[in-house]
Amino acid sequence: MDAITTAAPDLALDTRSGWPADLRVLIDRYPREVWTGHANLGQMAQFWLQRHDMFREIGAALADATTAFREGTATAGDFRAWFPPRLQFFLQQLHAHHQIEDLHYFPVFQAAEARLARGFNVLESDHGVIHEAILGTVESANAFIARDAADADALRRAGEQYAATGGALLDKLTRHLRDEEDLIIPLILDRGEAALGVG
Model-level pTM? Predict the structure, then answer.
């Protein structure tokens, strides 16, 4: 367990349900209902939200494809042709997205609003947790894809293992994306992208 979750176990990615009161200073002022159409929701924020939506959509498509294969409504050949390139794209894009956040955006936002500094430390810690989940997902996905389609039992077991690790990754990612948006978008709406140096 890392220093963030040891000091504040309620903020661990696997167990938290949103931000505590001290990190809700801006989301309470700028709830999600006011984001769309807000004058300070600039191009950077809109692009960033679109990237988050892309991760949600591809993650859901991967989960749906895995379910279809496990339930026999997609053939092994179809699944093996469709699945690997999309999983690879998803994971590569997610890794690049997190690097940009860790190295550029989080430091900028943290410097702009000291009251939210702990939240950005938590989000950076989340990236490490998600990275570990990615490694497990890749390992189980590779085992699933490599399994002999003629061995139905082994294929089913490998599919169940991938479904478990992939599902856990998507759960973590979904929670992280929402919490990240709830910390960052209200800050952008409050200050504006140009004033923050991200516009």
Answer: 0.90
